């Protein structure tokens, strides 16, 4: 029922997002539904953000997060939102493979030469962190300027949810789901944002990744927002909330201070 209420709320704020001043096109790179990208453009020379949405690796679609693109485009940024496979039809190995495929395709065929940021919320932040840190995934990991993660799980093994043992299986694949296992000194900078009142993904996840990345000599920083819960972080991108959101202001400042 909570998922239904959230979906109805997303429909409302996405209706408002259609008023934005940007060009939108859907890019297809294969026959499957998960082989699609939404490409929102404001300026070919502007920085670009690839946003991976959340949903516990099983819910929502790229269309559900048009409001995120709307706010980022309003900052003067180009935005990509890829679709990807979902559990339980697919395990995490297949989900990550499609995320990597979509990101590689965009970088190789469509990405302008301007700075490129990857961003994600919740499970999407975990995907963004893996794409950034694990050098065996993308063809051009060095193309990423920085990663921005909101409310992400980065250090969650042993798993506390029963179906995660299946989602991230088989057993030999468990370590590959943990971004903290890929920290490295030469990685793109990590900017980790978390609500102090997040009871879904505790803020200790972002603290752990930041500290482990710093310990190996890498660049990582973290912001914690009082009174903010798990869903609040991404809802901050709605037209109703974005003007007063410190998180939105921090993201804008971070991106433009690194371009």
What does this protein structure show overall?
- The protein has helices at 2-17, 66-74, 92-109, 123-133, 164-167, 204-215, 230-235, 246-256; strands at residues 23-28, 36-41, 48-52, 78-82, 116-121, 146-150, 189-195, 220-225.
- It is of the alpha/beta class and 259 residues long.
- It has one domain: 3-Layer(aba) Sandwich (Rossmann fold), CATH 3.40.50.
- Helix 4 links the parallel strand 5 (116-121) and strand 6.
- Helix 1 packs parallel to helix 2 (66-74).
- The longest helix has 18 residues, at 92-109.
- The model is unreliable at 1-5 (pLDDT under 50).
Walk me through the topology.
Elements: H1 2-17, E1 23-28, E2 36-41, E3 48-52, H2 66-74, E4 78-82, H3 92-109, E5 116-121, H4 123-133, E6 146-150, H5 164-167, E7 189-195, H6 204-215, E8 220-225, H7 230-235, H8 246-256
Parallel strand pairs: 3-4, 3-5, 5-6, 6-7, 7-8
Antiparallel strand pairs: 1-2, 2-4
Helix pairs in contact: 1-2
Number of strands: 8
Outline type: globular
Average predicted local confidence, pLDDT:
94
Task: Say which CATH homologous superfamily is assigned.
Answer: Alpha/Beta hydrolase fold, catalytic domain
Order of helices and strands: HEEEHEHEHEHEHEHH
Helix share bin: 25-40%
């Amino acid at each position: 029922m909570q998922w239904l209420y959230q979906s109805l709320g997303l429909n409302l704020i996405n209706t408002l997002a259609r008023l934005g001043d940007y060009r939108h096109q859907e890019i297809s790179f294969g026959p499957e539904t998960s082989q699609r990208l939404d490409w929102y453009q404001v300026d070919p020379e502007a920085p670009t953000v690839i946003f991976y949405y959340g949903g516990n690796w099983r819910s929502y679609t790229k269309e559900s997060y048009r409001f995120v693109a709307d706010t980022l485009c309003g900052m003067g940024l180009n935005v990509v939102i890829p679709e990807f496979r979902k559990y339980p039809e697919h395990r995490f190995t297949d989900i990550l493979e499609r995320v990597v495929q979509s990101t590689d395709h965009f970088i190789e065929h469509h990405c302008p030469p301007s700075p490129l940021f990857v961003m994600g919320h919740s499970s999407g932040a975990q995907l963004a962190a893996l794409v950034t840190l694990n050098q065996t995934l993308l063809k051009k990991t060095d193309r990423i300027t920085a990663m921005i993660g909101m409310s992400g799980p980065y250090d969650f093994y042993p798993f506390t949810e029963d179906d995660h043992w299946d989602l991230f299986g088989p057993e030999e694949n468990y370590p590959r789901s943990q971004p903290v296992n890929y920290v490295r000194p030469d990685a793109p900078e990590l900017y980790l944002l978390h609500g102090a009142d997040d009871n879904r993904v505790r803020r200790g996840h972002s603290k752990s990744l930041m500290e482990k990345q710093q310990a190996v000599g890498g660049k990582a920083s973290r912001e914690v927002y009082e009174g903010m819960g798990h869903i609040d972080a991404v809802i901050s991108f709605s037209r109703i909330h974005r003007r007063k959101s410190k998180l939105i202001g921090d993201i804008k400042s971070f991106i433009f201070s690194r371009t």
